Amino acid sequence: MEEVEINKSEIIQHFPKRQANSYKGDYGNVVLIGGNQSMGGAIQMAAMACVNSGAGLTTVFTDPVNRPAIHSVLPEVMVSDWRRQDSLKKAIEKADVIGIGPGFGRDHSRFNQIMLLIKQVIADKILVIDADAISILSQKDQGLDQLSQAKYLVLTPHYGEWERLSHGEISYHDNEGIQSFVNQYQLNLVLKGAPSRLYFADHSNFYQLAIGNPGMATGGMGDTLTGMVCGFMGQYTDHEAALKTATFLHSYIADCIYQDQYIVRPSQIADLLPRVMKEMEAERE
């Protein structure tokens, strides 16, 4: 397989421009599901990145203990109790993009309940799966087969999650094997690492970032990426371009921060995102 580098000029070329008469419905209805009692910060970071990437509407379904914390820093999002199946079902039906996993925990029963709701409408949904949701999914027989009917399916594993997902049968460095896996399940993969790589279903190439830095090796980095992926997916009609843009900007902004700081906090990436997006919009013009 041939390696193709994702560069800034390509990202700018596909960068969307907001129309003067647009409204929030034009930029995606995103539902994010995650954040148990111990890991509310994960879904909060994902939501912050989703909002700051330009999603038109963001709704978080989480453990109710997280509601005050999220509302205190993100008044722009709606926050609901993930135990309320009726509310979750209605939100999923209306959503354009569903992201599940950040801070979810290993509650198989809750995951199964939520996935039953998602599968009822999966053909019309963009589905982004990360973190604990990948780990749970990797333990379920033919779980991925059932999700291949999604309008667009994205998985964002790091090294350990890939090991579980592939059951240790496909090396993290085996690009041919990874592409075969992607083709088999008709999904699209962001394999997070140093550097990160992207694989798209039925492609003869894989894509790699030439950016990123050691300061990104900190908790919450993947949660922020998930929020960005969901946010861009809701705005782009070209899903491949959306995935490339989210992944590139995540590392690009981190590199800007790393020039002056020893570590990069994920929330800093989300904070800088609107400004960097405005700069890229100007460069396209």
TrEMBL record:
What reactions does this protein catalyze? (6S)-NADHX + ADP = AMP + phosphate + NADH + H(+); (6S)-NADPHX + ADP = AMP + phosphate + NADPH + H(+)
Which Pfam families does the record associate with it? Carb_kinase
List ligand-binding residues for (6S)-NADPHX: 42, 103, 158, 223
UniProt KW keywords: ATP-binding, Lyase, NAD, NADP, Nucleotide-binding
Q: An example of a Gene Ontology BP annotation on this entry? A: nicotinamide nucleotide metabolic process
Molecular function via GO = ADP-dependent NAD(P)H-hydrate dehydratase activity; ATP binding; NAD(P)HX epimerase activity
Report domain YjeF C-terminal positions. 7-280
- Which sites bind AMP? 192-196, 222
What's the Enzyme Commission number for this chain? 4.2.1.136
Q: Which cofactor does it need?
A: Mg(2+)
Assembly and partners are described as: Homotetramer.
Q: Which HAMAP family match?
A: NADHX_dehydratase
User: What role is this protein assigned?
Assistant: Catalyzes the dehydration of the S-form of NAD(P)HX at the expense of ADP, which is converted to AMP. Together with NAD(P)HX epimerase, which catalyzes the epimerization of the S- and R-forms, the enzyme allows the repair of both epimers of NAD(P)HX, a damaged form of NAD(P)H that is a result of enzymatic or heat-dependent hydration.
Q: Which family does it belong to?
A: Belongs to the NnrD/CARKD family.
> What is this protein's name?
ADP-dependent (S)-NAD(P)H-hydrate dehydratase
Q: Which organism is it from?
A: Aerococcus urinae
